[in-house]
Amino acid sequence: MKFLLTSAGIKNASLHNALVDLLGKPIAESNALCIPTAIYPFPGGSSMAYRFISGSTANPMCELGWKSLGVLELTALPSIKEEYWIAAVQEADALLVYGGDVWYLCRWMRESGLADLLPSLRETVYVGVSAGSMVTAPVFGETYDDPNKPFVIDKGLGLVDFALLPHLDHEDHPESSTAKVERMAAEVPVPTYAIDDETAIKVTDGTVEVVSEGHWKRFTP
Length: 221
Known about the structure:
The protein is of the alpha/beta class. 26% of the residues lie in helices and 25% in strands. It has helices at residues 13-23, 45-54, 82-91, 102-112, 114-117, 131-134, 178-185, and strands spanning 2-6, 31-35, 68-71, 94-97, 125-129, 139-143, 151-155, 163-165, 192-195, 199-204, 207-212, 216-219.
């Protein structure tokens, strides 16, 4: 696969250009499937899923002018014929994976069977937002309000060989301040990219490139 791992969607011209480059053609000639699954565990998750699909969030993805756009709901996949949803995924130029709860997303990526299919999609572009980006790592870390587990590490999908922490220094994400991210990254056993909402990590054939109109930092274990 090809990857564009964002913190908050396609927020600027540099990220837009990177997406077009990965697709190899204009967005208007490309077919996409969006995956809202990760947002459901949050309060108001169903309405946030609708807003993502309808293109009314602050995370531009679905509203970019795709030739066609479908919804791939991971929790539904185990109950329908594999050949139907696999064909739809194989025909898509891009998978748009929304943010939310990274553990929930990782669970359903595996239980749905999508995680097993992804490595075979050589030309498909995986576009992640926040948790949708984090889940691709060999391991990921997540912050929680619970003082007994402020930062928890778990096994990711291993689609890329680094970890990612989004929303660097965002005013609405105090857990992602540079100082806190540095402490969290020290606990992760692979290189970690901390990125702000104007930044993404682009991966093509294993080559990693940072695309940014904001700021970011790479931490090594």
